[in-house]
Amino acid sequence: MHQRPPPEKIKSLTHPENFMSRTHSYASLGDTDDIARLRRDVSLSSTVTQYGYKLGRNGREFETCCPFHAEGTPSFKIFIAHDGMERFHCFGCGKQGDVLDFVREVKGVDLPEAIRILGGGIGSRPNARLEQARAPDVYEGITALPPPADLLQAGQRIRLYNPKRRGARSEWGSFAPSMVFPYRSTDGSLLGYVLRRDLADGGKETPMVMFVRLPDGTETWCRFPFPKPRPLYGLQDIGEGKVLVVEGEKCRDRLHESSGRAVVSWAGGTQGVKHTDWSPLSGRDVVIWPDFDPPGMAAANEIAAQLASLGARIRLVGFADIGAASELETYRVEDWRAGLYPGRGWDCADALDAGWTQTEIDAFIQATVRPFAPPGAEDEKPVTVEAVGRASRRKAIVRDMPSPTREGDERPTLLFDEADLSQAVTNACRLAIDAGAPLYARDTVLFRAVRIAGKEKTVLVPADEDAMTEILTKHIRWLKPDARVTLGHRPVSCPALVARSVIARHGEWPFPQIRAVVSLPMMRSDGTIINAQGFDRQTGILFESDKTWPEIPECPGRALAATALESIRKLVASFPFVAGVDESAALAMILTTIIRPSLKTAPLFGVNATAPGTGKSKLVDVAAILATGRTAAVNSYAGDDNELRKVLESRLLQGDSFINLDNLSVALRSDHLCQVLSQEEVSIRPLGKTLALDSATAVMLCATGNGLRFAGDLTRRVVLINLDAGVERPEERVFESDVIEDTRRQRVEIVTSALTLLRAFVANEADKVSPALGSFEQWSNLVRSALVWLGLPDPLGNAARIRTTTRRRSARRRSSRPCRSASPGPRPISPGWWTKEPSIRSATAGMRSWWRRLANSSSAVS
Question: Per-residue confidence at 806, pLDDT binned at 50, 70, 90?
Fold first, then answer.
């Protein structure tokens, strides 16, 4: 049993002036080991429970309503301190301490009596009911008011009311602050002040002050805590860029004034972090500069954890090894460069006081900045302490500092809590966008842009759960709550639940809607040029290329446009165009291919030849190489509109920019193809899906064939190019160079010439061809009109021939139907009967050859 100290000693211990040194004084009686034993072995959480308070688990802490003042929301916390002992802290009334301090407060006894209670009987219970042990709310009846217009000034003495001293002589006092820190709400209105007064012993006092109405109606300045959550200090200056967080209003003002940076702090010191509204920093790039001591680092870690749950990118500045702190009173930049450490408590204000320049501050930040990360399991060095949160002891792992992350890892951090899945999904989407994740939407389907290895090609692939998990892990550092670690969370990969939830948000993503993927500069609808690689939000076009592209002149003249046209004409000079209108149509195909993603609609280009080997597919490949860097992938058509629909829809879904229907042997007729050509979007139902989506039709469509024919409404949607080599075997012709290799080699030059030509037409506000082609007005007013402006024939010169020939052949087909006799007799006369008569066949042999040439040189017929 412990002997009580003599009465004179007890009186000395309980005197108010000796309150802060009571433990030390009692230790001098020879009971140092006993006091240490009580603090170490007696469970604070168990003691609180025995006194009638129900504790709730919150991560690695316990919490309940404060036993010392009235409140509706738990603010009384029990936690394991750095020394391994359980301590409490109430963020409402500010009381804190260990198990001895708790018993003394709740029982209303002095320290020796608290020691006797714990030492003589740990199971001792309070001698009053729970309600009797609680102190009244000192702020009851006090109402906060809007502050007066006259701002408080440093050095200005004010009359200040202290509710905690109600009824005492010091209830009203005079306060002359050495510094004044105004706090403002999110709308910019003044909320109150934190006033700083320097004390004679070197300490400071920093009360929160608001203008209030007392219960008796008096309006005055009062020591009154800001309502929770409390606003950040410096909120009005955070702007849109990077934000520095420092501890203390003085540090904030000094660093903001010296650097012009966006700097914020918070009220209430290290214990005020959890009562602060950090939401204005949601999703921001945040750098935390903590004070160089254990409380400062703990506050920084707590801030980082809160910001992680808000999707912020978090980094820390300064030294991490607190154990290496020196005894230097003044830490100069020379000391840092010499490899020395500052003393404990060093902060940015101390650096400025020591004469650090802004350049030196910037260099220090750049040299010591590091990503924030929770402890990693692989480099943990746990210390086992007794966590006596329950009657049965448990082992817990505690760590004082976060472990370092991999060098160069600057991913933003996101704390995942299943209870707030919706917010986690929203934050993940926003952070993925900020980090440049290749995710894009097409109506209600999410795609990822995939770069094909070894090819200058990017395609769109529907995003599935596995791919989404990988992408979100690659761009975001995920933390998951874990009570076994000090910070309460550990690093993990993106939870599968988040990946599935992101995909399931059909059409509700913040990801941009993509229209097309290109590998060359592009002209917008207003005539401006997209020359920077990446996603262009104005047009919905993704530009990715391995090549270096020159700038396009802003206002080229007609002469420069004519020069650009000649370079394109020279490229296709080896093709056997039947007439000038066919060359003009071929040039229109090249220009259209290059800017097709920016056009609302564009006609189909048909290349017709009189014989195989004339070069119809090669001409299409020239256009495809200029647009994509590759020859055109071909598709066939056998007269089945349903099969053609499947081909078109699959190519549109994966973002292809060029489709060629090659070597058609039947007349091309398709209602769906007509829709793709003349509509900006078509409805597509992806394979295996029940929901349809609207997909952009920004694709270049071509068709080739010998004796190429079109039917139905398609005839008015076609620009025809006729080729005729004029020789019996066109495939045996000899050329000076390979036009395909020439196109690959000159791709940058030709594309630049094409864009210069079109830009010149727009910049010079040249006349447009009238009337414009219906359903393709934008194409007609740009591509078609630009060529006519430079003196070429109208590319639509073959359009009338297509329609005339189609009508003639349709009439001929109707007139050649089989005729039957009115009465039984000889068999009916059928088409082609004359080809079976030897005499007539011999007489018309030469005519048939001439007729075939004539039919192939005309346009298309069904």
Answer: low
Same domain, 473 and 569: no
Instruction: For residue 384, tell me if it sits in a domain.
Output: no
Element (H, E) at 316: strand 313-316
pLDDT score of 376 more than 90? no
pLDDT at residue 690 in the model: 61
Give pLDDT, residue 402: 36
Domains in the chain, number? 5
Is residue 325 domain-shared with residue 473, that is, in the same domain? no
* Alpha-carbon separation of residue 256 from 182, 265, 363, 742 (angstroms): 15, 11, 16, 60
Angstrom CA distances, 574 to 538, 621, 734, 737, stand at 39, 14, 10, 9
Domain ends where: 350, 372, 394? Answer: 372
Task: Examine the domain organization and report whether 332 and 455 are in the same domain.
Answer: no
CB 341 within 8 A of CB 321: yes
Choose the weakest-confidence range: 589-593, 614-618, 652-656, 751-755.
Answer: 652-656
Arithmetic mean of pLDDT over the chain: 81
Element (H, E) at 683: strand 681-684
Residue of 460, 606, 591, 446 lying closest to 520 (CA atoms): 591
Structure token digits, residue 754: 């094409």
The CA distance from 86 to 49, in Å, is 14
Q: Can you give the pTM of this predicted structure?
A: 0.53
Residue 522 is predicted with a pLDDT of 92
CA-to-CA distance for 339 and 475, rounded, in angstroms?
34
Q: How far apart are CA 634 and CA 705, in angstroms?
A: 12
* Whole-angstrom distance, CA of residue 90 vs CA of residue 608: 86
Distances (CA, A) of 601 to 542, 593, 781, 799, 807: 18, 12, 12, 18, 26
Q: Are residues 590 and 731 in the same domain?
A: yes
Are the C-beta atoms of residues 613 and 706 closer than 8 Å to each other? no
- Of 381, 405, 415, nearest to 490 by C-alpha is 415
Quick one: pLDDT band at residue 791, thresholds 50, 70, 90? very high
Kindly state the tokens that stand for 339: 């490899």
Q: Which residue has the tokens 């991560």?
A: 59
Same domain for 27 and 168?
no
pLDDT digits (tens, 9 = 90+) for 282-332: 888 999 999 998 888 888 988 998 888 888 889 999 988 888 889 898 999
Is residue 817 one of the residues assigned to a domain?
A: no
Return the pLDDT at 4. 38
Task: Tell me the one-letter amino acid at 581.
Answer: V
Nearest by Cα to 35 from 103, 105, 119, 110:
119
**Residue 688: its pLDDT value, please?**
61
Binning the chain into helix, strand and coil, the percentages to the nearest 5 are 40, 20, 40
The CA distance from 822 to 569, in Å, is 62
Expressed as residue numbers, the domain containing 447 is 411-504
Token pair listed for 148:
């007066």
Distance from C-alpha of 319 to C-alpha of 297, rounded to nearest angstrom: 10
